[in-house]
Amino acid sequence: MKVYAAYYNENTVRQQSSSGGIFSAIAISILKDNGVVYGVAMTKDCYSAEYIRVEKEDELKLLRGSKYLQAKVGDTYRDVEGDLKNGKMVLFSGTGCQINGLKKFLNVKYDNLVCVDVICHGVPSPNLWKQYALYQEKNREKLVAVDFRCKDTGWKSFGMKENEIYIPKEDSFYMQVFLKNYCLRPSCYKCKAKKEKYSDITIADFWGIDKILPEMFDDNGTSLVIVRTEKGESIWKKIEANLYAKEATYEEGVRNNVAEYSSAKKPKKRERFYVDLNNMNFNKFKKKYGASWGVRQKRKLKKFLQFFGGGIQSILYILRF
Ligand SMILES: Cc1cc2nc3c(=O)[nH]c(=O)nc-3n(C[C@H](O)[C@H](O)[C@H](O)COP(=O)(O)OP(=O)(O)OC[C@H]3O[C@@H](n4cnc5c(N)ncnc54)[C@H](O)[C@@H]3O)c2cc1C
Ligand code: SF4
């Protein structure tokens, strides 16, 4: 196993990606070899996420970025099998459990299959996302684009972008219930994919990189890359020239990323959360589980201090003259 901190040297692609854009670097290399890429995109109506098959580089933008809800697999495993049997090079990307599911479905080892998983602390139910999206639309306009990991204010302080509206993660109901683990699928609290890993490469956020390898941090996104197999190693060698990368230890890579090896703890409120989702008016539901009063006040205070601090600095600056 080799571990790296890395980011893709194409800035636009990196900006559209949740971490350092390593998924795109791998996908482009597979497409250049006449291969196909399977990954997760939002549906056109923005109400769900689904697997799609991509053959052209300009379609990769649909796969870029994390979609924080469980994606529909549909007939994808059968389609992957068809491509593999036709001798196509196939990149399959997704959560660890989706990769394990594919490998068990295929039941045959294919040299032309490359699997890339994301470190995954869990997925919310598609029902929660749809109800949230419908609620947001009632209060605003039809959702035509969603970015769950918008980097407009930086990679570390990411927020959600719904159409053109940026919502800091602290103020986003959806991000809050996701990050507090209220809304994950039952399997995510006892995730078997933490121990059984069948992917060739694992990608994730390299949280803590600013302290571990500060020269790899610029707040535009740095990926953690874990190369697990020889096939993974040969892909890494192909893309390495297009990356900024530094080797790290496994311990450094996962120090701030427990989701690599342990499941999310199930909060006491988890069962009640879904009962309430199905029975409460969404507005009341949102108030019950959204950002706490304390968090909102802390944020307001921070904004106030930033403004006030800026004011003091300006006065001091003027007084100097
Ligand atoms: C549900 C979820 C939970 C995650 N949890 C963590 C975590 O706890 N810690 C961490 O470090 N990283 C986590 N990640 C991974 C991280 O957010 C980035 O996706 C990853 O680092 C890849 O980033 P990138 O910049 O290389 O490429 P990106 O372009 O951001 O990655 C896109 C890749 O994500 C896949 N993808 C997007 N949405 C889904 C989905 N719903 N289901 C399956 N695959 C999907 C696409 O198929 C593609 O392979 C999570 C991702 C998802 C989707
Ligand atoms: S936490 Fe585990 S079970 Fe849940 S989506 Fe991620 S890989 Fe699958």
UniProtKB/TrEMBL annotation:
Coenzyme F420 hydrogenase/dehydrogenase beta subunit N-terminal domain: residues covered: 3-71
Superkingdom per UniProt: Bacteria
Domain Coenzyme F420 hydrogenase/dehydrogenase beta subunit C-terminal positions: 89-249
InterPro entries reported in the protein's UniProt record: Co_F420_Hydgase/DH_bsu_N (IPR007516), FrhB_FdhB_C (IPR007525), Polyferredoxin-like_ET (IPR052977)
Pfam families, per database record: FrhB_FdhB_C, FrhB_FdhB_N
PANTHER family reported in the protein's UniProt record: POLYFERREDOXIN PROTEIN FWDF, PTHR43193
Record's protein name: Coenzyme F420 hydrogenase/dehydrogenase, beta subunit C-terminal domain
